[in-house]
Design a protein that fits this description.
Elements lengths: L1 H10 L9 E6 L4 E6 L4 E2 H7 L5 H20 L2 E2 L8 E3 L8 E3 L6 E2 L17 H4 L11 H16 L20 H4 L4 H10 L10 H5 L2 H4 L13 H11 L16 H8 L11 H5 L2 E6 L1 H13 L5 H4 L4 E2 L5 H8 L1
Antiparallel strand pairs: 1-2, 2-8, 3-5, 4-7, 5-6, 8-9
Protein name: Protein kinase domain-containing protein
Organism: Haptolina ericina
GO molecular function, one term: protein serine/threonine kinase activity
Length: 330
């Protein structure tokens, strides 16, 4: 059910900064998604390889992310799992367009408000973390929080909050001089406006796009001053702290299959496809629902802290199946 819901939501979206979803093939045991091929890979991997990185680069990238999120929210949808792995680049060009991917946790807002804890540790908003222990709900503000975290990392190469001690009562935002010494006051103010613990105090996507940091003249602040982001970001990635995963063991689902669909880590990898597919700009991502359900049952019986990891959906790298090729030709 969750895989079908993702397909419905993703296929309904069309925006220059959202990875295109072409459709799905397969049955109950194998799910194959046809996605736009993002040749540039993950955004943060590109930054690590850059000789220099400045606020000007960050402004361009954050503006694109916000543009896509503004559109998503206008469609009544919340992504709920914005993180570095889901920010891809269209090409290897220096100013390649960002593409937001992975709508496995996305939800349509309306009469059914979001209550389920979900997201990735370090990027999830406080209200997402408290969802399992509170009758309150959350909405699109969780995406704004995640963008604040991503912006902080873009400008510093470090996490704003330690994932090892990540909890609502320990979210104290700071800007160490040894890292943020070359970052403008406007940029710090922008981050503060997104990383508000009270979701009602956060800027909306539309308001964030109008912030002085994104719209102000470049001569007002040092947008071209080289930042230590590439070096520090490499150290951060190597430490593994950017990919600390949420512990979903507390989520209750009626069956192992539905639980697996909810908790599985949904990373749309750029898989190896046949040359004919790559030339069409399509990548193929697949997962086995049966294996996922079996893994979920194991995770239920195992240690709770390992639940999310054991319930991770297996991603298979496949040559283009005949039915996929047929669908592409139709």
């Amino acid at each position: 059910a969750q895989l079908a819901e993702e397909a419905i939501i993703w296929s309904s979206l069309s925006h220059p900064h959202i990875l295109r979803f072409y459709g799905t093939v397969g049955g109950d045991s194998l799910h194959v998604s046809l996605l736009e091929y993002a040749r540039g890979g993950e955004l943060f991997d590109r930054i690590v390889r850059m000789a220099e990185f400045s606020e000007a680069h960050a402004i361009e990238q954050v503006s694109q992310i916000l543009s896509a999120i503004e559109y998503i929210h206008s469609c009544g949808i919340v992504h709920r799992d914005l993180k570095p792995e889901n920010l891809l680049l269209e090409s290897h060009d220096d100013h390649a367009a960002i593409k937001i991917a992975d709508f496995g946790a996305a939800k349509r807002m309306g009469e059914h408000a979001a209550k389920t804890p979900c997201g990735s540790l370090g990027y999830a908003a406080p209200e997402q973390m408290l969802a399992s222990n509170s009758p309150s709900t959350y909405a699109e503000e969780v995406d704004i929080w995640a963008i604040g975290v991503v912006t902080y990392i873009l400008l510093s190469g470090s996490m704003p909050f330690d994932p090892k001690t990540y909890s609502p009562d320990r979210l104290l935002l700071s800007f160490p001089d040894d890292i943020f010494g070359g970052v403008s006051f406007e940029a710090k103010g922008f981050i503060r406006s997104l990383l508000q613990v009270d979701p009602t105090c956060r800027l909306s996507a539309s308001a964030a796009l109008g912030h002085n940091w994104l719209r102000g003249p470049e001569e007002v602040y040092p947008t071209t001053t080289p930042l230590p982001t590439p070096r520090l970001l490499k150290e951060l990635k190597d430490s593994g702290r950017m990919k600390q995963q949420w512990n979903y063991a507390a989520e209750v689902r009626s069956t192992a299959r539905s639980r697996a669909a909810q908790v599985g880590k949904r990373r749309w990898a750029q898989t190896q496809a046949a040359p004919s597919t790559r030339s069409r700009g399509v990548s193929v991502s697949s997962s086995s629902a049966v294996e996922t359900a079996e893994t979920a049952e194991t995770a239920e019986a195992g240690d709770a802290s390992d639940g999310a990891e054991e319930a991770e959906e297996e991603e298979l790298q496949l040559a283009l199946p005949a039915e996929v090729a047929k669908k592409l030709r139709s």
